[in-house]
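Service request form, structural biology core

Requester: graduate student, group of Dr. S.
Request type: structure prediction, single chain
Budget code: on file
Notes: please return the result as structure tokens.

Sequence provided:
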Amino acid sequence: MALINTIREKSGVAVGAVAIGMLLFIVGGDLIGGRNRLFGRNDQAVGEVNGEKIELPEFTAALEQAKQNFTNQQGRPPDDQALNYLREQTWNQLLARRAYQPEFEKLGLTTSDDELVDLVQGDNISP
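Core staff response, request fulfilled:
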């Protein structure tokens, strides 16, 4: 019986502790999260290649272009499976542009005009 009376007397403290815990849980993500707007950190980087950040707007713009290309070619918007493929393809293209292209340029690797014509009209047409 004494235990029940103690619980009744201390219930305000318990409710207050639970309320503070819930408040910290809800607000805590904004205080310590990576996209902390409270302290002015608004990092929108979705990745980093060779120390160069890939920002969310750049990825989103490239993805929208890929979606538009898909819709133009297929005559319908991409479904979930195609959208996942487009996201992966877009990410790989951004990585290639940032990681591989500078190295190709350093090595002097290029595609000749004859090779480009062969890829488009020749016997070995690129898919």
